[in-house]
């Protein structure tokens, strides 16, 4: 009787092991606390939704059913915390990472992922230096600052009629990098840069630098930074009687920016997005509805790009028949599919091949694509 029970138990364990589903961890890193937590959560939600929907349809890697497990980390938009978080994800055994949001965290974190041999796809970091490092596992699903800055500088001169431009940046890798590229393009288009000032990504008082800029009487003031600073900055424009047009990049092009600026925002406010408006994205309308249903929140900026980043990772693993980076990375370099934002395929640096830029103007309470 004992032998029969033991044999049955062993058989049961064997069957259980045979049917056990392999777990593949995929990480995400973004600021989940602090002034831009709404953007970080948006990024995280996009990656999470991709994994949940893939699990619902069923994922098979190498002929075996696999469960994708999401692991999110808060990098606090801080470079030092970003590397700590990156190491934590590596130590936890993630096979790939969607993130980070800020270029200033993505760039130092990329070294950790590179040393571990795992893929990092950022849906938000636009500084060109990230992919210029030539790490074979680094990719992005968003246009970079060279593309975005060239459009912004040209737009300021040719569309807004700017002859004199003042530039402010937040001294982050993102803000300063975008400001540098915008300055180059504006100068090439014939504008004069009458002031170049800087602040920080924690500041809320800009009166000193704005007072200095006001005396130069610029036609356009460009800000390289995030919505948490851009909103209060616009309020101080109004307080100081500054009538120059306000122009910024994707970090400020959010619904939250409109809330933070309040009645100080008007038709003289413009921003750009490194991508199409969500209503013009091939899968945008459907994605927005699914996102709203799952999270009871509206898309901010980066969730569609994060969704496509996670989908690219899953696609590469399925095609390679393996979740091991050494096996799926060659397939990741070759991915070519229609995502939410459009075609997803990468050049030899890891940049998105078909990155597009859209410029918006504030009208009737919302950002309206021009």
From TrEMBL:
<keyword id="KW-0732">Signal</keyword>
<comment type="similarity">
    <text>Belongs to the leucine-binding protein family.</text>
</comment>
<dbReference type="Pfam" id="PF13458">
    <property type="entry name" value="Peripla_BP_6"/>
</dbReference>
<dbReference type="InterPro" id="IPR028082">
    <property type="entry name" value="Peripla_BP_I"/>
</dbReference>
<keyword id="KW-0029">Amino-acid transport</keyword>
<feature type="signal peptide">
    <location>
        <begin position="1"/>
        <end position="20"/>
    </location>
</feature>
<feature type="domain" description="Leucine-binding protein">
    <location>
        <begin position="24"/>
        <end position="365"/>
    </location>
</feature>
<dbReference type="GO" id="GO:0006865">
    <property type="term" value="P:amino acid transport"/>
</dbReference>
<protein>
    <submittedName>
        <fullName>Amino acid/amide ABC transporter substrate-binding protein (HAAT family)</fullName>
    </submittedName>
</protein>
<keyword id="KW-0813">Transport</keyword>
<dbReference type="InterPro" id="IPR000709">
    <property type="entry name" value="Leu_Ile_Val-bd"/>
</dbReference>
<dbReference type="InterPro" id="IPR028081">
    <property type="entry name" value="Leu-bd"/>
</dbReference>
């Amino acid at each position: 009787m004992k032998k029969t029970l033991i044999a049955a138990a062993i058989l049961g364990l064997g069957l259980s092991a045979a049917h056990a589903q392999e777990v593949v961890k995929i990480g995400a890193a973004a600021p989940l606390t602090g002034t831009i937590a709404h953007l970080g959560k948006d990024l995280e939600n996009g990656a999470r939704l991709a994994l949940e929907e893939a699990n619902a349809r069923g994922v098979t890697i190498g002929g075996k059913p696999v469960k994708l497990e999401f692991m999110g980390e808060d990098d606090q938009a801080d470079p030092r915390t970003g590397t700590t978080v990156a190491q934590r994800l590596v130590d936890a055994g993630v096979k790939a990472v969607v993130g980070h949001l800020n270029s200033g965290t993505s760039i130092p974190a990329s070294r950790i992922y590179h040393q571990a041999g795992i893929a990092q796809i950022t849906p938000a970091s636009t500084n060109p230096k990230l992919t210029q490092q030539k790490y074979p596992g680094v990719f992005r699903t968003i246009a970079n600052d060279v593309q975005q800055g060239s459009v912004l500088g040209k737009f300021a001169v040719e569309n807004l009629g700017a002859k004199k431009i003042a530039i402010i940046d937040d001294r982050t890798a993102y803000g300063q990098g975008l400001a540098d590229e915008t300055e180059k393009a504006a100068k090439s288009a014939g504008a004069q840069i009458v002031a170049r000032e800087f602040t920080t990504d924690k500041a809320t008082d800009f009166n000193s630098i704005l007072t200095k800029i006001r005396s130069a009487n610029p036609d356009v003031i460009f800000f390289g930074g995030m919505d948490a600073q851009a909103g209060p900055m616009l309020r101080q424009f109004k307080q100081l009687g500054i009538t120059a047009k306000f122009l910024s990049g994707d970090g400020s092009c959010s619904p939250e920016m409109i809330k933070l600026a309040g009645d100080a925002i008007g038709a003289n406010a413009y921003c750009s997005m490194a991508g199409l408006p969500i209503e013009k994205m091939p899968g945008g309308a459907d994605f927005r509805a699914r996102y709203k249903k799952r999270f009871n929140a509206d898309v901010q900026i980066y969730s569609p790009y994060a969704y496509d980043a996670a989908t690219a990772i899953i696609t590469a693993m399925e095609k390679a028949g393996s979740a091991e980076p050494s096996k799926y990375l060659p397939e990741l370099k070759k991915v070519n599919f229609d995502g939410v934002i459009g075609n997803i395929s990468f050049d030899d640096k890891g940049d998105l091949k078909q990155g597009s830029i859209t410029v918006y103007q504030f009208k009737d309470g919302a950002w309206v694509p021009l």
